[in-house]
Task: structure prediction
Amino acid sequence: MNKTIISCAITGSIHTPSMSPHLPWKPEGIAMQSIDAAAAGATILHLHARDPDDGRPSANADHFGAFLPQIAKKCDAVINLSTGGSAIMTLEDRLAGPLRFRPEMCSLNMGTMNFALYPMAEKERDWLFDWEEPFLRGTDDLVFKNTPRDIAGVLKLMGEERDARFEFECYDIGHLYMLRHFADRGMIKAPIFIQFVFGVLGGMGADPDTLDHMIALARKLFGDDVIFSVLAAGRHQIPMATFSAERGGHVRVGLEDNLMIAKGVLAPSNAAQVIQIREIVEKMGRSIASPDDARAMLGLKGRANTAI
Ligand code: KMH
Ligand code: ZN
Result:
């Protein structure tokens, strides 16, 4: 199918409220920006929760519940809930929202790793909330824990028992081999949707040669079962997404991964980034996958089978 899936990651757990006034962290803002991103062409909405009082990363199911019904009412985009949450959370915490809402998709991070955000604390800023600077600085000694037992647990609870399909987040070569290991254990259904993640300090750097290697390796390990997409942090977001689309892959944008729209210019919204990549993809002669196209391509169970 000559169609490109645009995922949009609306808020995440990396950036903090002081970094951009456009980063949505209140439930109304997360809902509004999600609906607008879908209207702009986002096929999949990748969602994290935030504490409505101060924007800190949250995995509280009630915090998800404060925006998911509004989104579901106003758009048909595929809702993909993070099981990565934030590296400061336990896996049990991270699963609260996905367990309650049984989404069509959820993310699954394929390895334990460093997830270092502390360079972002170096920029001079007026911090809006007390938690932000220590949160970022503390990531110099933080492990993002995704052991084989953790991964197996998510596959069982969300995949086997709740029929969700996955955005397999692979930040390194070893993560592809871990994915192969779980395929060999019979725990993964094809098609396998891999999100190559570039530019996180602790994972692979944003380099087109590395992307080519990852694509070749994924095809070697999974053959035709693989469908790949690319996200890259910060200024690499659009260039790496473009490389992905040029290679027949899919793309992810959104303020979770990048706050800018051009050098030195904050993105006014998630939708603005969706429009930016959409125009690039359409100029290549590709069209954007609708949510139902993505459901067919990825074998999703459908919105009606969720608890959203
Ligand atoms: N923010 C991305 C680099 C997840 O939600 O499971 C990683 C991510 C993880 O999206
Ligand atoms: Zn995420």
Notes: The pocket of zinc ion (ligand 2) is lined by residues 9, 12, 46, 48, 82, 84, 107, 256 (CB under 6 Å). The first helix runs from residue 27 to 40. The two ends are 29 Å apart (CA to CA).
